[in-house]
Amino acid sequence: DSPEIKEELLRKDDRFLTLLKDVYVESRDPPVRVKDGGGDHLPCKQEEKRLTKLGHLEALDVKKVPKGKISIVEALTLLNNHKLQPEIWTAEKIAAEYSLELKEVNSLLEFFIPFTVHEFPRETKKAIKSHKPKQLT
User: How many CA atoms are closer than 13 Å to the CA of 101, on its beta-carbon side?
Assistant: First the structure.
């Protein structure tokens, strides 16, 4: 905060400037060495992808997924297909159709079940009969 320190900081020292002008720096990059690792640093093999099988729900989901994986919409579709037609949509057919492991498809079909909506017929609904409130006397 003192003015003397500020002045000292801003003052140029001619002796140091002349010494600084005599300094010469030369820089060189080290020679590039090729490691004999047999391709350790090559880019990884890209995952093989497949087009999704979405039908009319195509706009709702991703277009490509890695092989061995399924999208959310595909999972719901195959679970629903298996639920509605289990004799046609067997675990083996689902595994082949979606490029999945049979063991994973069996687990999927065992532990994930789509919701079912039950609507009761009108005749069985019980109507609440209105009653007149009792008057207090």
Answer: 5
Write the DSSP string, 12-47.
Answer: --HHHHHHHHH------PPPP----SSSTTSPPPPP
| Side-chain-facing half-sphere of 84: CA atoms under 13 Å | 8
pTM: 0.45
What's residue 90's pLDDT? 94
SS3 content of the chain, % helix, strand, coil (to 5): 40, 5, 55
Instruction: Give me the residues of the chain with pLDDT under 50, please.
Output: none
Q: How many CB atoms are closer than 10 A to CB 51?
A: 8
**3-class DSSP state of 66:** strand
Q: How far is residue 52's CA from residue 31's CA, in Å, rounded to a whole number?
A: 49
Burial of 98 from C-beta contacts in 10 A (0-12 / 13-18 / 19+): buried
